Amino acid sequence: MCIPSRADERNAVEVWSGLDQQQIRNQKKKAIQEHQAIMKNDPVLAEVASKANYHIKQDILAISTAYYKLVLNALSDLATKFQDSKMYRIVFCTTQPAHVVTLIAVMTVATLIVPGEKPDDCVASKSVKPSPFFYLVYLASFMMHFGAQMWMTFVSGLSLYFAVPRHTFGEVQKVLFPKYFGINSVLSLLTIVMFVKLHPSSSWDLYTGVQVGCMAFCFLLELILRLYFAPPLLSLIASKNAMEKAAGVGLEVGKYDPGPLAHCPHYLKIHKAFRKVHMIIAMGNLVTMACTAVHLHYLSEKICNALI
């Protein structure tokens, strides 16, 4: 891929600035007049164009997209107002709320793991068949979790890294990383809650206990990555990209080339910290995928036994 140099960009700006704006307006007006003349001289073409415009105006996708944009703009305005509030600064700019969320998560997992009913109660409860809704939520949350892991790790990240400039890739990852680990932690929690609901703790054997342990560890690890590692990673990406843009690097595709920053101690320190945090997140993501794979094997074994 050929990247234009800064000299080429400056020349393009100078050429564009030197154009006669009045000449541009005249050319635009002339093009409109020619189009109107063609439509006037060819009634068939004018009728086809009119029908096409009618269908475009009545297109349900275009209408729904416009309303969707309005909803997003309204939510964006609310988010902006919330970010200016004192509560936002307390929740997202300090570490105390993250500690509280982690403590609540640990207590929730402990509540799910600790046996809550006696064996006699468990035997009596077996006569009550769980609602299909619980199975639906359980399977849907697990499948979405597993699919998100596969897509983010093996498709989205690698495809973008080898297809777009490195800074563009970094900006995309800044948006996706918090959402990825946040949504996955919620799906992990939902999966383990539904699994415990369908399998009371007093009836667990060793194999079932391993499943609960893997899912609980997966949930806590994804939550920790979201709360404690994703924010510093985003901050390091922003600092690193700012220095690279100032030095004129970061537009390479599928490779890393620091250019003149290779001899800058401050940049190398930031880059080393970025690589360290990024490696921790990558290894943590692989561990959560291993936990998901363990539960996938459990489900496949259950399906196999049911079909035999």
From TrEMBL:
The chain crosses the membrane at residues 90-113, 133-164, 176-196, 208-229, 277-298. Keywords: Membrane, Transmembrane, Transmembrane helix. It holds the Pfam family DUF4149. One of its GO terms (cellular component) is membrane. It comes from Gryllus longicercus. It is found in: Membrane. Residues 142-236 form the TMEM205-like domain. This is TMEM205-like domain-containing protein. InterPro entries: TMEM205-like (IPR025423), Xanthocillin_Biosynth-Assoc (IPR053009). It comes from the Eukaryota.
